[in-house]
Amino acid sequence: MSKKILLVEDEQPIREMLRYALERENYVVEEAGDAVQAREFLAKNRPDLIFVDWIRPWVTGVEFIRRLRKDEILADLPVIMLTARVEEMDKVKGLDNGADDYLTKPVAIKELIARIKAILRRTSKANSDNKLVADSLVLDLATHQLTIDGKDTHIGQTEFSLLKFFIEHKNRVYSRTQLLDYVWGQAVYIEERTVDVHILRLRKILKSFNKDKMVKTVRGMGYIFNVGGE
Predict the structure, then answer these.
(1) Per-residue model confidence as pLDDT tens digits over 178-217
(2) Which of 13, 26, 41, 126 is paired with 152 by a 20 to 30 Å CA distance?
(3) Which is nearest to 215 in space by CA: 206, 225, 228?
(4) CA 43 → CA 33, 72, 94, 98, distances in Å?
(5) b or e along 11-31 (b: 16 or more beta carbons within 10 Å of the residue's beta carbon)?
(6) Cα–Cα distance measured from residue 35 to residue 41, given in angstroms and rounded to the nearest whole number
(7) 186-203 b/e with 16+ CB inside 10 Å = b?
(8) How far is the CA of 189 from the CAs of 44, 162, 181, 185, 186, in angstroms?
(9) Which fold has domain 130-225?
(10) Would strands 49-52 and 4-8 be described as parallel, antiparallel, or unpaired?
(11) Whole-angstrom Cα distance, residue 16 to residue 149?
């Protein structure tokens, strides 16, 4: 599947140039003219990588990245700063505030693509090496396998993604709308009832091991994943 890249750049000609170069490499490209538009996009979509200019006047690229790193849902998104600022202190400021890489304009397209591939390789490898553990539940992100009490357990792709989100964000209530946005990952036009259906399927899987109480309904609010299962 093609990787999705979000361009946060206030100059349209530069966005168009970058889009052309990235699409030639089979990346899916989304655009935002400023940090406000970028946050609106990220509320319902999750790219694989973000390019951020210094962007003004409302929020600088550095401030945008700083806020991103404080967001528990989006904090792990890789970010490359691409800016005309060439001073060493600006580069240090960008990296210190959470940028994964810092490139200055104008940038050679071959170098740009190489930097993207390097970061995506690192993040892909990190994800594939991870195993998420909650109580006796183990999710292998490389093989998409669920193990409960040491036993391999069949689980559908959507239920796997839902459980992954719950384990990563345990002990916090999420509404159906939030779960649609974060788990399904797109601004999809499906009913909130869809969440309930997959919650029931997930609970059925967990019930075989008396773990279904880990997914609790909070009346009028949504769902919470409780590792204690109380």
Answers:
(1) 888 888 765 556 777 889 999 999 999 999 999 999 999 9
(2) 126
(3) 225
(4) 16, 13, 23, 20
(5) eeebbeebbebbeeeebebbb
(6) 10
(7) eeeeeeeeebeebbeebb
(8) 11, 18, 10, 12, 9
(9) Arc Repressor Mutant, subunit A (1.10.10)
(10) parallel
(11) 52
Query: ∠ at Cα 28 (22, 30), nearest 5°?
Result: 95
Tens digit of each residue's pLDDT (9 = 90 or more) over 58-114: 678 888 898 888 887 788 889 998 888 888 888 888 888 888 888 888 888 898 899
Q: Which amino acid type is present at position 177?
A: T
Q: Where are the domains of the chain?
A: 4-128, 130-225
> What per-residue string of b and e applies to 64-91 under the rule 16 or more CB within 10 Å gives b?
bbebbeeeebbeebbbbbbbebeeeebb
Other Cβ atoms less than 10 A from the Cβ of 129: the count is: 9
Q: Which residues pair with 152 in a beta bridge?
A: 147
The residue type found at 222 is: G
